[in-house]
Specification:
heterodimer, A: alpha/beta, 5-stranded mixed sheet, 7 strands, B: mainly alpha, 3-stranded parallel sheet, elongated
Amino acid sequence: MPDATELELTAQELRNAHSESIVDTEFHRDRATLVANPQSITQVLNHLKSKGYTFLASLHGVDYYPHEPRLGVLYELLDMRRVDRITVKARVSTDEPNIPTATGLFAGADFQEREVYDMFGVNFDGHPDMRRILMPEDYEGFPQRRDFPVGGEPVLFTYNEEQNYGKDV
Amino acid sequence: MEIGREPLSDFRVRQLKARDMLRGDLEGEDLERYVEERVMTTTVDRAVAWARGNSFFPLTFGLACCAIEMMSIVASRLDIARFGFEAFRASPRQADLIILSGRVSIKMAPVIRRIYDQMLDPKWAISMGACCSSMGVFNNYALVPADKFMPIDVHVPGCPPRPEALAHGILRLRDKVQGHGKEGWRERYDAVGTEELLPDEATLSSPEVSIFKPGDTAGA
């Protein structure tokens, strides 16, 4: 992990290279996070990749309901020579959940971006094949969003066996 | 089997009678008694059901962790071949029993329904484990219980069920196929009338008695 000082230096370096690219930095429990502007996420990732973070370990989504902007896309980058990790976070709103794709930089982002789209409804602009990966194609809604109903079946007990599907038994 | 329990002299008598019958010496009342003793009548339906129930061809089809338990019933400890169910078939066209062993996601459900439709009649289905009977711990958007999209003959509860439980389920299915299936556990254990007693409305609404209403899981 870069320590807090190194994280600030990296953030300043990125701000100098691309203005407005870094919104904030977080250093919590020895984990360094750069909060990036979603519009300039490609430049940020490209810069970090050329710095040595050549491996995208994970790409995932988070719903920060009720905080705004609600959705977050997290990129976990790994520098395999220095054995150093850094997290890049980009927050997007549910009204306009668009963010440029990372498939041009990391080919492995393909399926992971599809999963984030499937579960959280984040559209990755420029993705070669932006469709659902886990849920059926005709599924409606994004099930990992916090306002999505949990769903499922009512559990059958003696008191409700008359109302539910057990009534014919 | 019957012969072994009889005294040797009786056995010898029957042997001699059989010899007489084959020679054509047995006539009249003796012949009637001979036929009554040795011929069993049944219907073709019952005979076919007996044969079917003793030779299920299960489908080689595993869904999740229950499939590991399903595999072990063919192994030496439980050895389902004792009952004639060991021939797991790799094609639904050759199988007549599908064991849903694991969770069924809503994307998998049409696939399973299609496999079930490809099986030839007569066919049976066992829903194994909590997930595909009632969605179990995955009671959410992703799963669908098996009863929603196909007929199930026997539900085996458990998470996962022990292999013995599955073997028991298959034997219950055999009883069902052979036409003397026992229905619910309350009938089987002579426990009709042991349903959960519920407090009436007056008790529920009175504030001094602190009990949860049915279905009230808050604070649980």
